Amino acid sequence: MTRTPYIKSFSNGLTLIVEEMPTVKSAAYSLIIPGGIVQDDPSTVGASIILTELTAKGAGKYNSRELSEAFDNLGARHGESTTSYLSVYGGSLLAENLEELLPLVSMMVRTPHLPEGEIDNIKNLLMQDIRALKDNPARRVINELSARYYPSPYNRPSVGDEVGLAKTKLADLKTNFQKCFSPKQSILSIAGNVKATEVTSLVESLFGDWSGPSVEMPTLAEFPTRHMHHIQQDAAQLQIALAYPSVKFGDTHYYASRIGADVLSGGMFGRLFIEVREKRGLCYTVYLSTSSTALSGVTLAYAGTTPERAQETLDVMLKELHSVKGSVTEDELKRSKANIKASLVMAEESSSSRAGSNATDWWWLKRIRTLDEIQDGIQKVGLTELDNYFSAYPCDNPMVVTLGAKKLAV
Description:
Number of domains: 2
Structural class: alpha+beta
Strand content: 15-25%
Order of helices and strands: EEEHEEHEEHHHHHEHEEHHEEHHHHHE
């Protein structure tokens, strides 16, 4: 049975989404605020990450320890994070405690203390994360690929920039806060064993008089020309990552892209796993994924192998990506549809999943896709629709980044 979320747009620009799930005992929330790393000044890339973390270090009537204890006393699993586009606050708890939790979230985004004494601690943790990339080549090669694939400022590293983090001062954070922490275009999505009328009244009392400016997303410039890049590093393994365009979120071929990715990388039956690892034993890890926003979509593939087997690994990966059109069988299509539908069924039972997906839908589409709509979209994809997707978004001239002791060729 399809649930229809309740949606209310407040006069200050905040959108509230409530999905009532009477069969669960939990409640979850996802508050997304426009901003993110793309809004940082070029000289302080990563300031938005520090700011989001700093809002948890005391707010309203609570100092840092008291605020943390207040969440813990409610049994809340919560956190805050920063993406390229957004500051995100989310969590879950027993539905009966939601009324006590939302005031804490309101304080964090409206009246944070922003204590200067906590900034260096946050910087140090972020710096450690950046330096840890040297010990995690699989993660590093994906970061290097993103930096080359996307145009500025959408190519900024998700962990921030060492120079930018070091330069960030309290004044920069306060400027970011005044610029980005606003109800305009912000979305508060709640799902669980709640009543929409009660939640609306509570949210209006907590956020109704919130005010702030509009935040404009930077224009997505032309993408860089795709080339092959090699990063020399003495290592026992060689990392391979490649990317090429895919469909935007919600556009034609969107559901076909989901199925296509599953055909190529759906667990032990994915073609890349079978051809690269099982048949030839070229590597231990190989996968492919697609991600989409309303701005752009991308297909990303990765493999980690030895320098001796790296060239063959890349060759086989590209061969499979080039030859998939027209070769997918009915059994593969059926299996991929079943995999995706199973994930949807599990998501339907999770308040956290519903809160998050509803917020994402509204952010990019300004509407909520029902589960029936999504399942219907998947079901309508046949072999012809799948081939049309592979024709529209072929693996032609991908951006390839390799990291290791040996340079490869396409």
